[in-house]
Amino acid sequence: MENTHKRLAVLVSGSGTNLQAIIDAIKDRSLPNTEIAIVISNKQDAYALKRAENNDIPSIFLDPKQYKSKEEYDQKLKAIIKEQNIDLIVLAGYIRILTQSFIQAFDKDKIINIHPALLPKYGGKGMYGNNVHKAVLENNEKESGCTIHYVTHEVDAGPIIAHEKVPVYENDTIESLSKRIRVKEHKLLVKAINTVLPKPIIRAK
């Protein structure tokens, strides 16, 4: 019988709240006909790996120290993902910058990333996690948010799939702003995956 489930590879570096949002959406069928085939992290202590284990999802810690270069690391990463027959690669809080050779190994609409700001503002090298929220607050921005975009060789500059805004309040801290944006991230990521995943072909009997 032909498998019509779409298979995701989720790359993570931290606590994995966006991974959890995907897991929950698959369970409640707001992400229908979808499965997480593998979770891969560059951090051994990433709680995202525990989330995968708790949900019986195959997971791998791929140690950067075991590889001589980013290219070599990404060659191994590519090999693991290719073995899994993946329909979409989701960067869900993955802080490593992918090499151009890795990106070119997949179709241009095969890799998406979630970013905790309204791109093109506050994107690029070093702009991740709390670094983003700190910069937003220091610049007295009135709004921030999150963006889902396709991954290209230029960091955080790929075509935008969707974004969601949140207000920035005068008494906001990095923690409070991050928390408000994270709530939006979870919903937006699920919505974006639903949007970009190729729909299964149901063959007539």
Describe this protein's structure:
The structure is a single chain. The protein contains six helices and seven strands. With 205 residues, the chain is of the alpha/beta class. The chain has a single domain, classed as Formyl transferase, N-terminal domain (Rossmann fold, 3-Layer(aba) Sandwich). A seven-stranded mixed sheet has the order 3-2-1-4-5-6-7, covered by helices on one side. Helix content is 34%, strand content 21%. Helix 1 crosses helix 6 and helix 5 crosses helix 6. The C terminus is likely disordered.
How many E-type strands? 7
CATH topology call:
Rossmann fold
Instruction: Output the CATH class name.
Output: Alpha Beta
**Average pLDDT number:** 93
Computed Rg: 17 Å
* Gross CATH architecture: 3-Layer(aba) Sandwich
- Report the end-to-end length measured between terminal Cα atoms: 12 Å
Structural class: alpha/beta
Helical proportion? 25-40%
Give the ordered list of helices and strands. Answer: EHEHEHEHEHEEH
What is the 3D form? globular
Properties at a glance:
Rossmann fold, 205 residues, alpha/beta, 34% helix, disordered C terminus, seven-stranded mixed beta sheet, globular
Task: Report a brief summary of the structure.
This protein has six helices and seven strands, in the order βαβαβαβαβαββα. The protein is α/β, with parallel strands linked by helices and 205 residues long.
